[in-house]
Amino acid sequence: MATDESRLLMLIDDEPAQSRLITVLAAREGWRTLVVKDPETAIATLGTRQGMQLCAIILDQWVPGDDACELIRELKQRRPALPILMLTTSASPLLAVEAMRAGATDYLVKPVAPDRLMQALRSATRQEAPRDELQPLTEKFDATPDFDAMIGNAPAFRTALAKAAKAARGHGHVLIQGENGTGKDMLLRAMQAASPRVRAPVRFVNVRGVPANSVESLLFGHEPGAFPGAFDRQIGALQHCDGGTLVLDEVDRLPEAVQAKLADVLLHGVVRPIGAGHGYKVDVRVLSATNLPVGELESGGYFHPDLLAALAPTRITLPPLRERQGDIAALARHFLARIGEQPGLREVTISDSALAMLGAYSWPGNVRQLQAVLFRAAVFCEGEVLTSDCFPQLATLVGEDHESASPMQQGVGVMLYAEDGNLRPLEEIEADVIRLAIGHYRGRMTEVARRLGIGRSTLYRKLADLGIDNVA
Predict the structure, then answer these.
(1) How far apart are CA 374 and CA 119, in angstroms?
(2) CA 120-371-56 angle, 5° bins
(3) CATH 2.80.10.50 is held by the domain 4-129
(4) 454: which DSSP letter?
(5) If exposure means fewest CB atoms within 10 Å of the residue's CB, which of 180, 194, 278, 309 is most exposed?
(6) Which residues contact 375 (CB under 8 A, 6 or more apart)?
(7) Parts of the chain belonging to CATH 3.40.50.2300
(8) How far does CA 39 lie from the centroid of its chain?
(9) What pTM does this model have?
């Protein structure tokens, strides 16, 4: 079996430029790439000694010869366990569905960002990932950048949305923390869409996808001759976004020196391109996100203290899905409704037993993983209702106790009972209800007070008495 140091990738592609690019990108992750130009050679290669060492295949849809989906079926028939990723210029969900039904593991739309390609290869080949059912997919449907599109009633989640809605209306910097798949990117886009700077310049940067030696130039720009290969002047993202917003995902991955330089820009409002003799005055708002808890960033030395101080006065925490189990049913129905609108798919519902199974799983990949699992079930299961039988791998992981899940775990976000089975104190329940109302009505305190049947002054007194932060 191939080791991590000798992983072999077969690329079926007849475009030399693209082949070179993918070969270089894959090499960064320790892959060797075998390039073949047609289906016949690819199939013949499977039976060779080199073909037996393959760990993954990338197939360009436009390779001459057989239909791409037919080729995928042929490859999967000969090597069922081999992950196959399809490259295409089409973003059509119909093609994604056809490719998956043929046996594709993932679906990449060209031009593929380097980090997206590496993520797809890692997800397809990592040994600890459960087979089939829980493999991450790329069924990314266009999401409306709106707070109303974010589904859930869990108090911590609604509080985060209320805080984000209030912060979006201002001009201050924001730091969102939450695990992978919790919805940070969607929340960042919703905040940008609700911002007074929505019509101003904006740039979205995922730091993970930018090489460490390029990120400084990308953010700050450079002058000709600033370093070897800098033949032209480049305007950095900060200068480009003057008057607007820079959105930085995985901001903690910035090199320490770049973090310090960014902190100085946010403090003084002046950006100096690499190699420039003077700086430029800028007014830039930074919306940022990190997968790590802020406390861990501070204690582990992963984050420059000046940058953390600049970004973190407004901190928003998105809870993981395992802490929002009461939201799983609503999320599942929402995703299935959207999936049913896609070409090549039909509208399906989901049974109570299947929902109980979903609620019994811990979801390490959070909301993104839930969407992937539902998408795969909708593609492969027959019938109009998804049952627990449509999630065989999930059933293996959660065991047979999912149907006995407590109704408390499937509530709307306000728990009446403590873990010992006794009723919670009325004060705690009241605090949860107020938090839920603040989130549900997007921090509009007059509306919150009206819906709760109390006066606005009474509401603020309760906020103080119950120790609830006035997130709105």
Answers:
(1) 20
(2) 20
(3) no
(4) S
(5) 278
(6) 137, 139, 335, 339
(7) 4-129
(8) 34
(9) 0.69
Q: CATH number for 155-317: choose from 2.60.120.1440, 3.40.720.10, 3.40.50.1820, 3.40.50.300.
A: 3.40.50.300
Q: What is the pLDDT of residue 320?
A: 95
The residue written with tokens 């391109």 in the block is 273
Q: What phi and psi values does residue 66 have, to the nearest 5 degrees?
A: -60, 155
What is the reported pLDDT for 47? 84
**CA dihedral for 186, 191, 192, 198, sign (positive or negative):** positive
Q: Which two tokens stand for residue 233?
A: 């002047």
* Distance, CA of 20 to CA of 24 (rounded, Å): 6
Please tell me whether residue 433 adopts helix, strand or coil conformation.
Answer: helix
**385 torsion bin: left (phi>0), alpha (psi -120 to 50), beta (else):** beta
Cβ partners under 8 Å of residue 326, min gap 6: 153, 154, 409, 410, 411, 412, 413
Q: What's the pLDDT at 423?
A: 75
Distance from C-alpha of 419 to C-alpha of 408, rounded to nearest angstrom = 10
Q: Which two tokens stand for residue 184?
A: 């940070």
- Concatenate the DSSP letters of all residues of 1-68 into one string: ---GGGEEEEEE---HHHHHHHHHHHHHTTEEEEEE-SHHHHHHHHTSTTGGGEEEEEEETT-SSS-H
Q: Using alpha carbons, list the distances in angstroms from residue 318 to 246, 374, 472.
A: 20, 22, 16
Give 275's DSSP letter: T
Residues of the chain with CATH 3.40.50.300: 155-317
Joined tokens for residue 370: 């839930």
- Could you give the maximum distance between any two Cα atoms of the chain, in Å? 78
Q: What is the pLDDT of residue 310?
A: 93
HSE of 173, CA atoms in CB hemisphere, 13 A:
22
Q: List average pLDDT for each run of 10 residues in the chain, which is 472 residues long.
A: 66 88 86 90 89 90 71 88 85 74 81 77 60 41 70 87 91 94 92 94 89 88 82 90 95 93 95 91 96 82 89 91 90 88 81 88 90 86 87 79 46 59 80 79 81 89 74 45
Number of residues in the chain: 472
pLDDT of residue 446: 87
